[in-house]
Specification:
Strand content: 5-15%
Number of helices: 12
Radius of gyration: 22 Å
CATH topology of the largest domain: Aspartate Aminotransferase, domain 2
Shape: globular
Strand order of the largest sheet: 1-11-10-7-6-2-3
Oligomer: single chain
Order of helices and strands: HHEHEHEEEHEHEEEEEHHEEEHHHEH
Distance between the termini: 14 Å
Structural class: alpha/beta
Largest sheet: 7 strands, mixed
CATH architecture of the largest domain: 3-Layer(aba) Sandwich
Number of domains: 2
CATH superfamily of the largest domain: Type I PLP-dependent aspartate aminotransferase-like (Major domain)
Bound molecules: pyridoxal-5'-phosphate
Number of strands: 15
CATH class of the largest domain: Alpha Beta
């Protein structure tokens, strides 16, 4: 008789994992107050300023500039840090498209670097091999909330005079050697899009300790205005990418509950790391004592099919889902293999643009392995579950391994 739920057996569980987003009276009260105040835009109310101050301080930065998305935050951070036409920016091939598309939007050239399979973060040795006379910046992505090796990134940047823009879209509250990520380079950016651990539906923030970057980012976000100038005086080039007070009302409420949620996810991550490490064929990420806090936007591990009767990752994922565990294969295509990069279709209506780089020639073996064969993710809401929920995850994996021939 079949044991696996994917073959007609009984699933490990049928109850749902925690729903996301989590909200309460705070969101409703804050939103109601904004509506009643009639001050719905960030230029008129006080909540956006308050959140900028609180979040920047939380990440150890002097300034915070709220914008309408994490993608916008990256593009503005690059531009405000002086990156533009012809500049090459090193960015991991295993990340969300915004890390790379923001570089195109800033007028610069993304150069894809591989990841370290032990961390899923930037491989800085590979980055060093990619340097050219046009390299001007490096963008570590603190993927899944796990800080990249900032010792290595900052050392490389110092040696070659590179700007460091940290894509911390998934890393609210993460710290490297006791300092908040995003505050280690020239600028860092975060996302508050709806899947994120702090969310307002959409939104993003740029943080920085650099006075000039802050001034330029603020101007860029607000139609090129300067804080000293008149309303219709435009000193710089910029657009309107501002956030609303309604979003900031939600952000403040989400932020208030964040430390408690982060602790639950961290405890569950530590527990899963410990339990899954004991299963041959499942490889959890390497520990690193320099990571002093980790947000856990995703829980990631490597699936080795040779220990699961040679069955492909897609069969494993399907079996996990049928056992009642929401499981994701993650990114299925390295960024450089995305049609938009293969064709350099960055112009109007997908017209090819003449960039001095051939993305069809790029190969990042570890990224390809992660996409095609090994990476498996659980999203942050799963990590908000109870210890019993985590035990169900472990039980499902063990069950699938024992019955892998059935897959
Ligand atoms: C690593 C990374 N960078 C950038 C972004 C872009 O953020 P947003 O969706 O808010 O534009 C995301 C969001 O998914 C992300 O995961």
């Amino acid at each position: 008789m079949a044991q696996l739920a994917s073959k007609g057996g009984t699933p490990v569980r049928t109850e749902r994992f925690p729903f996301w987003p989590v909200w309460g009276d705070e969101e409703i009260e804050n939103l109601t107050a904004v509506i009643k105040s009639g001050k719905w835009g960030c230029l008129h109310g006080t909540l956006s300023d308050e959140f900028e101050r609180k979040f920047a301080a939380y990440q150890d930065a002097k300034y915070g500039i709220l914008v309408n998305s994490g993608t916008t935050a990256l593009k503005i951070a690059l531009t405000a840090a002086g990156i533009g036409a012809g500049d090459q920016v090193i960015v991991p091939a295993y990340t969300f498209i915004a890390s790379a598309s923001s570089i195109i939007e800033a007028g610069a050239v993304p150069v894809f670097v591989d990841i370290d399979p032990h961390t899923f973060n930037i491989d800085v040795d590979h980055a060093a091999e990619l340097l050219t006379s046009a390299t001007r910046a490096i963008m570590p992505v603190h993927f899944a909330g796990r800080p990249a090796d900032m010792d290595a990134v900052l050392a490389l940047a110092k040696k070659h005079d590179l700007v460091v823009i940290e894509d911390a879209a998934q890393a609210w509250g993460s710290e490297w050697r006791g300092t908040g990520v995003g505050a280690l380079g020239q600028a860092g950016t975060f996302s508050f899009q709806s899947s994120k651990n702090i969310n307002a539906g959409e939104g993003g923030i740029i943080i920085t300790n650099d006075d000039l970057v802050a001034k330029m980012a603020r101007a860029h976000n607000n139609c090129g205005r300067s804080q000293e100038g008149q309303w219709y005086e435009h000193f710089y080039f910029g657009g309107n990418t501002r956030i609303t007070e309604l979003q900031s009302a939600v952000l403040l409420a989400q932020f208030g509950r964040y430390p408690e949620q982060m602790k639950i996810r961290q405890d569950n991550m530590n527990y899963l790391n410990q339990e899954l490490a004991a299963i041959e064929g499942i490889k959890v990420l390497a520990e690193d004592a320099r990571i002093t806090s980790q947000s856990v936007h995703l829980f990631i591990f490597q699936y080795r099919k040779e220990f699961f009767a040679g069955k492909d990752k897609s069969l494993f994922i399907d079996a996990m889902r049928k056992e009642g565990i929401p499981t994701s294969p993650g990114y299925s295509i390295p960024l450089y293999k995305q049609p938009v990069f293969q064709k350099k279709a960055f112009g109007p209506r997908g017209r090819a643009v003449d960039l001095p780089i051939d993305y069809t020639a790029v190969v990042c073996p570890q990224t390809e392995k992660a996409c095609f064969e090994e990476a498996v993710w659980f999203t942050q809401n799963v990590l908000l579950g109870t210890r019993e929920d985590m035990d169900d995850i472990v039980e499902a994996i063990v069950k699938i391994k024992v019955h892998a021939e059935e897959l």
